[in-house]
Specification:
The protein is α/β, with parallel strands linked by helices and about 260 residues long. The chain folds into 2 domains: about 1-15 and about 70-260, 3-Layer(aba) Sandwich (Rossmann fold); about 25-65, no CATH class. The chain has helices at about 1-15, 50-55, 90-105, 125-135, 150-155, 175-180, 215-240, 255-260; strands at about 25, 30-35, 60-65, 70-75, 110-115, 120, 160-165, 180-190, 200-205, 210-215, 245-250. It has a 6-stranded mixed sheet with strand order 6-5-4-7-8-11, sandwiched between helices. The chain has a 3-stranded antiparallel sheet with strand order 1-3-2. A two-stranded antiparallel ribbon has the order 9-10. A hairpin with a 3-residue loop joins β5 and β6. The longest helix is centred in the last third of the chain and has 24 residues, at about 215-240. Mean pLDDT is about 85; it is low at about 25-30. Pfam families: DUF58.
């Protein structure tokens, strides 16, 4: 599974001009954007004198801004990620991680991955190895135990910090929001928006307790309500802290959704 996912995400990233981080801002970077006539009051140092001489009018070169930054991708690993009707939530998050990390590496940005420990990911090989290490971890029976306070003090430079999880438990990101740009990528499952009318054995992915459930309309409505209630607690806190979040469903085209979300950042 993971090898196929790596091939797919590498194709998505390296066949596009800038992966998921296409910028809508203009600046003094290295990527040429366009040539246009000089406007009075602009910095004369931007004038391309060779082109201006040929066209007999002053023209300036406009460049696409280089947005080099520190990108820290943090997995919130717990048993609830080992769940999915079409594919596991952890697989959706692994795809998002690969797309972002590979895009960052391609653009020369400093990429750091965090599962239980921090690891710098300077090249494609280290990104692939990190993802394989995450895939090898046992999630069933596990709750999220990441020490957020220690992680905060371990990130010394201002960064783009991206948390990947399902956020069904309360999480306090106030420290991170005060210093960094913070984003939450939220794994969702399409079962939360579909109808089920059959008996199932269900297992709590953290406690491993089992029970039989008949998923009729009332049961499913209660399930959806509990999920939404848990998420909304975090979402309301995110809004107060100016933390952007993106919900990623198992049926989503992840590259397109991420590219649209990150444009201009």
């Amino acid at each position: 599974m993971i090898d196929t996912l790596i091939i797919k995400t590498k194709r998505d990233v390296f066949s596009k001009s800038s992966g998921v981080f296409s910028s809508s801002q203009l600046g003094e970077g290295f990527d040429f954007y366009e040539m246009r006539e000089y406007n009075y009051g602009e910095d004369a140092r931007k004038i391309d004198w060779l082109v201006s001489a040929k066209l007999q009018k002053p023209y300036v070169r406009i460049y696409q801004e280089e947005k080099l930054r520190n990108i820290v991708l943090v997995f919130l690993l717990g048993g609830s990620l080992y769940f999915g009707s079409k594919r596991l939530k952890i697989e959706t998050l692994l795809e998002a991680f690969l797309l972002i990390a590979l895009s960052g590496v391609r653009m020369g940005e400093r990429v750091i991955g965090v599962a239980d420990t921090m690891q710098q990911l300077p090249n494609i090989f280290t990104v692939e190895q990190f993802v394989k290490d995450v895939t090898a971890r046992k999630l069933l029976g596990r709750s999220v135990t990441l020490d957020l306070q220690s992680l905060f003090y371990a990130i010394h430079e201002k960064s783009l910090v991206i948390f990947l999880g399902d956020f069904l438990d309360p999480i306090d990101l106030r420290l991170f929001a005060a210093k960094h740009e913070v984003i939450a990528l939220v794994a969702r499952d399409s079962i939360e928006n579909t109808s089920l009318h059959s008996a199932c054995e269900v297992v709590d992915c953290e406690s491993l307790r089992e029970r039989s459930v008949v998923f009729h309309k009332k049961t499913l409505s209660s399930y959806r309500s509990n999920i939404q209630q848990a998420l909304e607690q975090n979402f309301k806190e995110f809004q107060k802290l100016h933390i952007d979040y993106l919900e990623l469903y198992d049926t989503d085209e992840v590259f397109g959704k991420l590219a649209k979300f990150f444009i201009g950042r």
